[in-house]
Each structure stands twice: as structure tokens, then as C-alpha cells.
Amino acid sequence: MQLKRWHFVAPSVLASIVAIAFFTGGARVPMDNDTTSVEAVAEKESQPVAEEKEASLGSPIQLAGSVTLTVSELAEFKAKDPEALGVEGRPQIMDITVENTGSAGFDLSSFIILETTLASDTSISCLDVFETASGVAGVPVDPIVQPGKSVTFKWAMVCPAPVGDELTMTISLSDTDQATFKTKIK
């Protein structure tokens, strides 16, 4: 049986194409835990840097992007449905007001309490609570704050800490807007 030339050429060409695609194909991207490659450094530098400001509860604070944030003093939260609390601890509630002084709408979809730290045990955090029966539903259904307008909503959390424990709380409105508040558990 005589082998034809294409029996050798076709597999060789196919193997060459696969090898080229494997070793050179696609854009280079940093791998997990890669902090030193050119791609990883470039990606990190392209990320927005959060501007974190110290703030006081009850006082407005001007953040980047023409947004003013006001967080009320904490108060003890008495849930209408105790099952909504989820864990044992001291339920706390606050009013969050976001005022848009800019010329474009501001999207609250990224709102989050980024971090809570308790002085008595820094390894424990407060947990968010949502209970519509008490009017605590999180960010409004329409999260866009129009220019010249403000929106206020309730936010609750359970903190596994004693009354009077010091709480440090960082709130993030976006990738670049963060404020840190210090208060005491009520």
C-alpha cells in the first residue's frame, strides 16, 4: 500500500496550527495571584482608585462625582419580624441620604456597607438586615438619583457586640466613593 503525500502533509499542517494557537493564541491576561507581570501591573493601574474619607454620622460629606452622603446616628432596630434578623446580636438601623449635586444622574446600584469592624472583636462583622414590613428594603427600586435631587432610605444590620462597643463602618457608593464612620453600638 502506497501512502499519498497528503497523508503526511495534512496532519503536519494541522499539528502546526494547533501548536501555534496553543503557544501564541489570544491576548495575554494575568493569572490568579499574579502581581508582577506587565499585564497584572497594567490592569491594576487601570482600576479606579477609591477615595476614602473620614466622616461623622449625622453630618453631610461631599464625595467625588458631585454626591453628598449623610448617614444618621445608629438607633436600636426593633424588627416587626424577628426572624428577619437571622443572627443574634444588636439590631441597628440608620437613614442613608444621597444627594446628587451634579449634572448627570447618579446610580446607587453599587451601594454597599463595605466593611464593619467592632472594637471588641475585629474578626466579627455586622450583617445586613432587610425587612420590608419595617421599611428596610435596601437601595430604592429606582436607584438613579437625578441631578439636584436626593433620596433617603433605611439600612439595618445586626452587630454581634455589646451596647457601647465601638463600630467602624465603611460605606461605598461606587468604585471611587467611600466614607468611613466611627460610632458606638446602641
Characterise this structure.
With 186 residues, this protein is of the alpha+beta class. The protein folds into two domains: 5-46, no CATH class; 51-184, Immunoglobulin-like, CATH 2.60.40.1240. Helix content is 16%, strand content 35%. It has helices at residues 5-24, 38-46, and strands at 51-55, 61-63, 67-71, 75-76, 90-100, 106-107, 112-118, 127-129, 144-145, 150-159, 166-172, 177-184. The longest helix has 20 residues, at 5-24. The mean pLDDT is 85.
Q: Tell me which CATH architecture of the largest domain applies here.
A: Sandwich
Number of strands: 12
The rounded distance between the terminal residues' Cα atoms is: 91 Å
Ranges where pLDDT stays below 50 over 5 or more residues in a row are none
At the fold tier of CATH, the topology name of the largest domain is Immunoglobulin-like
Number of continuous helical runs: 2
Radius of gyration over alpha carbons? Answer: 26 Å
Secondary-structure-based class equals alpha+beta
Percent of residues in helices: 10-25%
What number is the mean pLDDT?
85
- Report the top-level CATH class of the largest domain: Mainly Beta
What series of H and E elements makes up the topology? HHEEEEEEEEEEEE
The count of domains is: 2
Which range does the strand content fall in?
25-35%
Please summarize the sheet with the most strands: 6 strands, antiparallel
Globular, elongated, flat, extended or rod-shaped: what is the shape? Answer: elongated
Structure keywords:
186 residues; alpha+beta; Immunoglobulin-like; six-stranded antiparallel β-sheet
